[in-house]
Amino acid sequence: MKYRTSWYPLSIYLLLCAGAVTMVIPFLWMVSTSLKTDSNVFSTTIELIPDPFVWKNYVRIWEYAPFGKYFFNTLKVTLLVTAGKLLISSTAAYSFSRLRFPGRDPLFMVFLATMMIPYHVTVIPLFVIMREFNWINTHWAIIVPNLFSAFGVFLLRQFMLVIPREIEEAARIDGSGYIRTYWRIVLPLTVPAMTALGIFSFMGTWNDFFGPLIFLNSQHMYTLQIGLASLVGMYQTDWTLMMTGAVLTLLPILIIFFLAQKQFIEGITLQGSLKG
Question: What is the number of alpha carbons within 13 Å of residue 152 lying toward its C-beta?
Fold first, then answer.
């Protein structure tokens, strides 16, 4: 028993370290490839540290493709989707958790059941709707459908359910209406959940490939993911530029995560405690 107790934590630690190394190596290889010459990419020897370092790849990619336009398009779509999703999800969660109206719980269950419908099943009817609105090859086609999230409503609703109703009743006695109570009292108390949902939304929208692939067909409308895919040629692919673009695309995600990791971890921890 003592033998198992002494080796068990060490084995778990070694297993986690092996998993971490397995996850990190592809990212290191991506950065390494972005700093190599074309001839060194397919070298028979494994070179994790490039020799020489080719920093000009990070300049050449801006000349090879309109990467600045891709960045702007992706940032615009991501910020609008994230802000809109937080607003819509929080107001819907407030209605489902704090307001009483006929059919509230059955309606929420039906709304929650939409999480079981795969996105790919709705692509054809969604495409038809976007075509009727003349939104094909516009960013509205990938912004508006992503504003509504059953997962986001469920996440925020679970947080709002644990807020004591006495706080709202005290605010209502002071003359606060539903909108003011939501904005001044309930919303600040759900900051951890809002942060977690914001990070999920930002990452999902920033990395979205399928939606832009379906609805966008002009280069000046491309997002980063479609722009990266366009670097793949029919007969030849510049892998150094491909990896350089991948590194540049990944940087905003890493920055956002590290800046908000405290709130993100707190939100996930609180969500786990609510499920328990």
Answer: 26
